[in-house]
Structures are given as structure tokens and as C-alpha cells.
Amino acid sequence: MGSEQTVRNICVLGSTGSIGTQVLDVVERLQGRVRVRSLAGGRNIELLAEQVRRFRPHFVVASDSEGAAALREHPACAGVEVLCGQEGMCRIASDPDVETVVVGVQGFAGLRPTIAAAEAGKQIAIASKEVLVAAKEPVRRAVRKGGAKLIPVDSEHSAIFQCLTGEPEGSVERIILTASGGPFARATREQMASITPAMALAHPTWKMGQKVTIDSATLMNKGLEILEAEALFGVDPQKVDVVIHPRSIVHSLVRFVDGSVKAQLGVPDMRLPIQYALLYPERVDTALPQLDLLTCGPLEFHPPDEERFPCLRLARAAARRGGTIPAVMSAADDVAVEAFLDGRIAFLDIPDIIEDVMERADNEPAEELETIIRADYRAREMAREAVEKRSRAAVR
Ligand code: MG
Fold first, then answer.
1. Nearest to 165 by CA among 148, 152, 154
2. H or E stretch covering 177
3. Are 102 and 278 in contact (CB under 8 A)?
4. Does the N-terminal or the C-terminal CB of the chain have fewer CB atoms within 10 Å?
5. What pLDDT is attached to residue 113?
6. For residue 166, how far is its CA from the centre of ligand 1 (angstroms)?
7. Distance of CA 154 from the midpoint of ligand 1 (Å)
8. What are the tens digits of pLDDT across the range 274-301?
């Protein structure tokens, strides 16, 4: 490969988060192959300004007007166009001078910018699984309309994507998602009752944001990933299996109709799937850590325990029910995880709250964005009420 290397212009949504900072690390390693055209960050304005200084984008987007005002005053942002909020994110996601849009925004906030990028026909490196879970139909429709391409950043889905490359349609028999099992894979129900946020944030293999780390500890992350696989690959969720694989070396597998199984392996480092998504279909050496088969230890697999980890069962129920229920589940989980991180509810309250909201919420067809946004909003309200009840009960 190689003499005519084109420079790719990218837009990074969620640049100050865990995915975003690792994306920018990969960009630096790629030494000029990728140019940052625009950045959208969260509340950490100092970090966002520092990123502007390092990458000299054309646009920078703050999450709110206060942040935008601070950026306009900041010396690092002189000559850079400062935008704000969802509107700003949609604008940079559909910018004609951008080829690849990275969606690393936490959760549902990435929804409208993802649709904007899809309608504008971008290559979308998508890390926000909540967007795919809640809004599968609108996203798929926008991708078709704009001729966009979704490249997963989530390590399991990157693995599946790589396994499926070059395979004819209809050849897949099952998809096998691997899960590390999180820090409590061997804990008893009694031990799980006293899990603190600090304990749950200590993930054994992956370095990730707080929400996804807690989701990994409850296995809701894997539940969301079943639905994410459905959205990305059009696979029936019934054909997606989950196996616990504590070392996170085999990132996921595909079994084909002839019985052959393909897997993708690598060290657990998010920069690998990020780099793959940024340069797809090219592969380059950027001196990231290498897998050594002789020292990586035995590759064990065992079945997940849905009794101890009810979130997996809830996600399967959401996949079966369809409509707005996956969006409802994801929204309730978001609220419950935040309440757990704030010390307001116990670890084992998380699945209870999600189940409670899923039982009470109406299910509607999830074709239109507005319906989904409404369902998300109502589910969050119900989840907050459920959190309130539990935190009051705990005080008494
Ligand atoms: Mg994952």
C-alpha cells in the first residue's frame, strides 16, 4: 500500500470523554494521516481548550452556552469557530469537509448528531451503544438515506465486524459476544449487596468511562451489546450468545452455517478498535501493545449466571418485546447507574429499578425519533421516582 496516502478529516464528538481522549491519542500516533477538523467536548472546558491547542480544529463545540462563552475567551481558541450544544454537534457532524465522524458522546446525547452524520453520508465510527439500542430504526433509515457507513468502535462489535468482512449474507449461524464478567464475576448475591461505587469502578481488564464500567459490573453492558449487535448487523438477538471470558483477549466470535468459527483477538486496549474504525479498511502499525500468545494465559470461557446478573435477562426481554422498550431499558439504566455512583441506591437496586420501569412503561413502535425521545424522557422520570422511593426507604 501506500504512496498516495490521503489525509482523513475527522470530527470527534465527545472528545473529552474516555473514548474521545483515546481517539485523540490514536490520531497523534497516526502522524498526520488523520486531521481533526472539529471537536465537541463535555463539561471539562480546560481539557477541551487544551485539545484545541494541540489539534487546531476548525470548529469546537461546548456542551452548553456557559462553556461556549468560556471557550471564546480562551487564548487557545483564537481563530477557532466556537459552537454550542446539540445544534453545534449536528452542524460539525454533517460538515461537508469531514469524512469520518466519531460518536463517543455518552449515551443518548449522541442521537441527533449520529442521525445528522448518517444523513450526510459520513463514515461513522460509533462508540455510543445507547444510540443504536434506543434508535435502531431511525439510525438505519438515515444510514440508508445518506449512504453512510457505520463502523463499530465497541471492541466486541469491532471483532464481529472484522469476522464478517468478506463473508456472504446468510452465512452467519450465531454471534458469540465475550464478556469479561466484570469485577464481581465470582461474587455471591450476599457479597453483591454491599458493593460500593469504588469497588464497581475497578474493572479487571478494560479502561473505560464510568457508565460503561458500572454496566460491565452488572452485565447490562453485555445486554446492551446484544441489542447493539442487532442494530449494527441486522442479526436476530436470539442468535446472539454471551460467554464469560475473563481475560478479554478473544473480543468476540462468529459461527458460520458450515460450523466454522472466526474470532478476533488482541490485547484489551480500546485504541485498537478505535484505530481500525478511523482507518477502515486500512491497517497500519502504530506501535500499540501486541498480543503474545505464549504469555497471555489460558483462554477460558464459561456461561453467564443470569440469576446473579439479572440485567442480561432484562436485555433479552427488551430485545423480544422490541419497540420503545430497549430505549426505556437503556434510559432507566442510565438513571440507576448515576444514582448508584452518587451513593443513593445499592448495587442490587440497579436491575430492580430497570425492571420496575420496563414493567410500567408503555411500548410503542420505535420508528420515529420523536416517539423514542418521548419514551426516553418518560422512562427517566419513572426511574428517578423509583430511585427516590428506594433512597427514602434506605434512610428509614
Ligand atoms: Mg464492549
1. 152
2. strand 172-179
3. yes
4. C
5. 97
6. 23
7. 5
8. 999 999 999 999 999 999 999 998 999 9
The Å distance, Cα 180 to ligand 1 centre, comes to: 9
**pLDDT tens, position by position, 329-348:** 999 999 999 999 999 999 99
**How far, in Å, from the CA of 7 to the mean position of ligand 1?**
28
CA atoms within 13 A of residue 253's CA, in its CB half-sphere: 21
Cα 290–chain centre separation: 24
Question: Which triple of cell numbers denotes residue 73?
Answer: 475567551
Could you tell me if 204 and 182 are in contact, meaning their C-beta atoms sit under 8 angstroms apart? yes
Distance (Å) from CA 251 to ligand 1 centroid: 8
* 3-state SS, residue 183: coil
Tell me if 113 sits within 8 A of 86, measured CB to CB. Answer: yes
User: Ligand 1: distance of its center to the CA of 229 in Å?
Assistant: 11
Calculate how far, in angstroms, residue 382's C-alpha sits from the geometric centre of ligand 1: 27
Closest by alpha carbon to 61, among 83, 94, 92?
83
Say how many residues make up the chain.
396
Beta bridge partners of 123: 100, 149
Distance CA 40, CA 62 (A): 6
pLDDT at 107 (0 to 100): 83
- DSSP state letter for 168: P
Distance (Å) from CA 14 to ligand 1 centroid: 17
pLDDT band at 14 (very low <50, low <70, confident <90, very high): very high
Q: Is the peptide bond before 281 cis (omega within 30 degrees of 0)?
A: yes
Please tell me the distance between residue 156's alpha carbon and the centre of ligand 1 in angstroms.
5
Closest CA to 182 of 316, 350, 321: 350
Cell numbers placing 105: 458522546
| C-alpha 174 to ligand 1 mean position (Å) | 18
